[in-house]
Amino acid sequence: MADSKLRDLSTDFAIKIIQFCETIKGHYSLTNQLERSATSIGANIHEANYAHSRADFISKLQISLKECYETEYWLELLVKSNIASEDALNDLYNQCGTIRRLLIASINTAKNNNK
Predict the structure, then answer these.
(1) Total domain count for the chain?
(2) CA–CA separation, 13 and 5 (whole Å)
(3) DSSP state of 91
(4) What number of other Cβ atoms are within 10 A of residue 3's Cβ?
(5) Per-residue model confidence as pLDDT tens digits over 53-98
(6) Of residues 62, 60, 3, 67, the one with CA closest to residue 40
(7) CATH number of the domain within which 106 lies
């Protein structure tokens, strides 16, 4: 159940990021990095569902977590460079934080179940 929620949230988040990036003119390098990290979150969560082992599953979720932190960095950079307003990105930042917290909980659960 939690895996499905995480997959759904990460897919919805990636779609919203793609749509947001379409509204930014110029700054291709920043929006490209944002799109790549945000879409990688869900891709690695999806891949974790087909892991070869518990260790592989945990590894894929940890990659997703790293991508989540990177996505937060790009969102922060867009605000601090005045390319996007904090209000415009607040919802995306909150969604990314929710996914991050769920990933941390899932990783911890998987590690504890591995003992």
Answers:
(1) 1
(2) 12
(3) H
(4) 15
(5) 999 999 999 999 999 999 999 999 999 999 999 998 999 999 999 9
(6) 67
(7) 1.20.1440.60
Q: Which two tokens stand for residue 97?
A: 């934080």
Q: Which domain does 39 fall in, by range?
A: 2-113
CA angle 99, 3, 16 (to 5 degrees): 40
pTM of the predicted model as reported, rounded to 2 decimal places: 0.91
C-alpha distances out from residue 66 to 59, 62, 71, 72, Å: 11, 6, 9, 10
Answer positive or negative: Cα dihedral of 11, 26, 72, 40. positive
- Contact between 93 and 72 (Cβ < 8 Å): yes
